[in-house]
């Protein structure tokens, strides 16, 4: 996951710290907007600047807004105890495309793990508002995150260091391989995105890209092939 820096200049950002206990989901109620647009709108309201911690755009890019350590400005009574994620769009009359949904899910899963929290709310569940919009896939999000979490727990409990199977695993979307499934579970556990197929045992494009990302992040030769070094690093923790 790649979080782009919004590079926002805040005015007198509150010194009150944020102590996240939940993730709060919003929409921008605007068809198109950048993090800078939101920043300007919120400055115009006399706020310190962008009230949200993150913006997920329609193309799947993720921008940082207010620092996670600062209290947000997005939901009455919850600003100092939550991380807020805003989604570009108006989901009262639009529906969310896959790219944006996957990025939103990935960011939320990452934050849930980072803060060890499990509560996710749509803004309207806490305040009198129609945010994040009647078409917002909040229910799907909650289901997908619960599935992700239980598969991670399952993957974690069954994945002790497993010895390298002794052969190179390469991209081959036609062949199912139980060893591929094992390392896919480990990649998911480490928060790499395998797309909607998850740990299916097929070494396809998403798995290939996740392997390369993992190799880069671990200073291994980024060739997208799982050999002994990549395997052992994956299963080392
Ligand atoms: Zn909202």
Summarize the structure.
The chain has 237 residues and is α/β, with parallel strands linked by helices. It has helices spanning 35-44, 98-115, 138-158, 178-189, 205-217, 228-234, and strands at 3-5, 22-27, 54-56, 62-64, 82-87, 119-122, 172-176, 202-203. A hairpin with a 5-residue loop joins strand 3 and strand 4.
Task: Walk me through what this model shows.
- The structure is a single chain.
- The chain has about 240 residues and is an alpha/beta fold.
- The protein folds into 2 domains: about 5-150, Peptidoglycan recognition protein-like (Lysozyme-like, 3-Layer(aba) Sandwich), CATH 3.40.80; about 170-235, Orthogonal Bundle (Muramoyl-pentapeptide Carboxypeptidase, domain 1), CATH 1.10.101.10.
- It has helices spanning about 35-45, 100-115, 140-160, 180-190, 205-215, 230-235, and strands at about 5, 20-25, 55, 60-65, 80-85, 120, 170-175, 200-205.
- It has a 6-stranded mixed β-sheet, with helices on one face.
- The chain is elongated, with a radius of gyration of 19 Å.
- The two termini are about 20 Å apart.
- The relative contact order is 0.13.
- It binds zinc ion.
- Zinc ion binds next to loops.
- Pfam families: Amidase_2, PG_binding_1.
- Belongs to the N-acetylmuramoyl-L-alanine amidase 2 family.
């Amino acid at each position: 996951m790649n979080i782009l820096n919004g590079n926002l200049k805040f005015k007198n950002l509150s010194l009150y710290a944020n102590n996240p206990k939940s993730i709060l989901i919003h929409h921008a109620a605007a068809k198109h907007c950048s993090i800078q647009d939101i920043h300007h709108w919120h400055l115009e309201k006399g706020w310190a600047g962008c009230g949200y911690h993150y913006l997920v755009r329609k193309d799947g890019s993720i921008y940082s807004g207010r620092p996670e350590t600062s209290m947000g400005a997005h939901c009455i009574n919850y600003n100092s105890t939550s991380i807020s994620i805003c989604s570009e769009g108006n989901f009262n009359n639009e529906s969310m495309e896959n790219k944006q949904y996957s990025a939103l899910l990935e960011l939320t899963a990452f934050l849930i793990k980072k803060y060890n929290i499990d509560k996710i709310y749509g803004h309207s569940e806490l305040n009198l508002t129609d945010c994040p919009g009647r078409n917002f896939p909040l229910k799907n999000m909650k289901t997908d995150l619960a599935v992700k979490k239980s598969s991670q727990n399952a993957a974690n409990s069954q994945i002790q260091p497993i010895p390298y199977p002794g052969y190179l695993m390469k991209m081959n979307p036609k062949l199912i391989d139980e060893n591929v499934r094992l390392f896919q579970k480990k990649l998911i556990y480490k928060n790499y995105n395998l797309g909607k197929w998850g740990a299916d045992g097929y070494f396809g494009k998403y798995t290939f890209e996740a392997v390369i990302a993992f190799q880069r992040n671990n200073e291994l030769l980024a060739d997208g092939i799982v050999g002994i070094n990549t395997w052992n690093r994956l299963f080392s923790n």
